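Recap from last week: sequence in, structure out.
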Amino acid sequence: METPSKYNPVEVENKWYQYWLDKGFFHSEPDDREPYTIVIPPPNVTGVLHMGHMLNNTIQDILVRRARMLGKNACWVPGTDHASIATEAKVVAKLKSEGIAKSDLNRDDFLSHAWEWTDKHGGIILEQLKKLGASCDWERTCFTMDKERSDSVIKVFVDLYNKGLIYRGVRMVNWDPQAKTAVSDEEVIYKEEQSKLYYVRYKIEGEDDWVTIATTRPETILGDTAVCVNPNDERFQHLKGKRVLVPLVERSVPIIMDEYVDMEFGTGCLKITPAHDVNDYEIGMRHNLETIDTFNDDGTLSEKAQLLVGVDRFEARKQIVPMLEEAGNLVKTEEYANKVGYSERTDVVIEPKLSAQWFISMEKLAKPALEAVESDEVEFHPKKFKNLYRHWMGNIKDWCISRQLWWGHQIPVYYLEDGSYVVAETIEKALELAKEKTGNQSLSINDLTQEDDVLDTWASSWLWPISVFGGITDPNNEEIKYYYPTNDLVTGHDIIFFWVARMIMTGYSERDLYPFKNVYFTGMVRDKQRRKMSKSLGNSPDPIELMNKYGADGVRVGMLLCSPAGGDLLFDESLPEQGRNFTAKIWNAFRLVKSWEVSTEISQPESAQLAIEWFNQKLSIIIEQMNDHFDKFRISDALMTIYTAIRDEFSSWLLEMVKPAYRQPIDEKTYNEVIDLFEKLLKLLHPFMPFISEEIWHYLKERKDGEAIMISEWPSVLNYDEELVSKFESVKETVSGIRNLRKSNNIPMKDSLELAVQQGEKGYDAKYDAVLLKMGNLSDVKLVTEEIKGAVSFRIFSSTFYMDLGEHIDIEAELNKLEEELKYTKGFLNSVMKKLSNERFVSGAPEAVVAKEQAKKADAEAKIKVLEEQIASLK
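Predicted structure tokens:
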């Protein structure tokens, strides 16, 4: 095949991805090989690819491609998440743009719109992942609301309920007034805000006296049912047993005493609104207080507030302040910094709200999941996330799993007319249970009403590693037995509680076994100012545009060049550009090799034979290092190892060593050995840069249809001689020394020079003279026993190398240059000595600063000695 002069990434990527698909290389079926399984963290079904997805899926693809090459049966299961809150919000917005309100529709009509939206947008992100090169088993694509996953979710709900781990209760929950649903503690983001603290006085009933409280939320005063003080606070002992009147509504409420009150905060008096604050709710429960919910589900004031009914909570705050002032209740206001909880989904302020919800009791489920990580049965990479996990699991709260939405898994609870209920996987099974429970055999399906609420989205994806293999509905099927537990999970540390911890819990509760052996936490993708990538900031590039511009391989490399496990990636467009430049470097190396004319008539030069011997040994060390990095999940380090091996060792050294003279052919033995080495390097590169490695691999040799680098064998570590590799490093340093002397003395490579060596224990081995002769364009290398006067020199370990430049240099000009440098260095040394002779500096400056100056002195003295020796040799 004729080699194209330029590499066209888009054309190449489309060609090879389709080839891999057509040949079925991504598909896996159970067989007698060792399985290697990864499940994708399912992205939102109606989402599009962002930089976090790019990083996460690049790492998964690297791991799964290498596993294939190691001979494992690699299975990467893709899929999407139905994302209840996010998707419902998008459907509601779409309907609104068409003049339709959600309240105008019944549940079935709304769901038909939601499914239509999902079908239209649902495949976009998976198609985008294909462009990245993701080698998922697309035949196994799952969706958290497809039949198998839905059946699994419902079955687990029923099982947990029957085990007494699911219950219904009225609890204080985090309420999202925009989405009009409860959200879990983990879905609340706290932001530091500059607020106001309002000091409001309450009249003591029956007296001409007042107590003053401080609050950041005066709009909740309308729901107050007590004022509370600390029983240890001497200032308020006289208030015991008295009552106060709530401002504006004149409700008589008791003054209670509870040690929860912080005597140092505000005035030491606390207003208690059990319906609108989680701590107030706990106090209310202890003191049997009335609960008055003054907010509607949308965050407006309800009729129970008596005032400002229907007004939004924040507008109500603005309006109630002058009302309190006019009534003589407002004492003063102060600026106040506090943390306010926002819904992660809609970015509106969370409202604590009393609500009847469904909960999972977590304590029993959490115990084996905590022990699994503590004992490294499930290993975290990096380890630092164990502490975060331990803290959360050790303080775990029951999980509110019900959501007041229509899009999602409808909770399988069926109510009877009297308010009692049964829990079953289907309405038919529910009817049987209802008959059994009531003893009424005449009951029909029409007598049952299913719970309106749906399950939290995470209550489906926590089953993901099991449900994608049908392991909930058919626990003993062949696939779950073969593929489970999975090997590695790659995810962001921001969902360690939402998803990782909960999957570990269900792994043990459903199968008595961990769901994955390793968890690799990626960092967050941020811009170079350390800001999180977001559309609103306009700092998040379009991944598709990046791949069109730099090629998928270039973007993959760019993402990983600065992406340590768990550490944030500071993304800048120079990174994929660096990846594209590396692609060009590989392509140019390939074109150079393919441009050589091969001769069967000439024998292999000694320089080429030595170079090939060295590189073979070096390659085994490279493979060993990469294997070690992979074992320790140092993916960026593994990339850097092959990156430098190709850029430096192969392109800059080996190819230069074996390259034939201008317009001369290369011997066949060397050429074939270089091709074999290039092939091994491409295999090591393939997981990181699948497209260019596949393209070049097919050009290097004739391949049969159905062959591919992606199903070839990962190179093995062969026996290697560390001493030989070490000696060759000295050879490379010697070549660099020769080239540096040429450069500093303006002697072109075409001019042949003679090298003399005063041999020491290390630094020179005559075995490699053939390499030095070629790489340095030397006429001869000879041994000498003493210093050569008038020659320039350099030292490698204990060996000194001399080059008599003679007619090649202007000795007078060289002397002037060296003497000028000597004068400058002596002046620099003098300034350093002044500092070090100043006793105040030496005794007062930090130790590190003094040590730095002493190092400068030693360096300057060493340089002066070398310069004086060079000058003496030229005189």
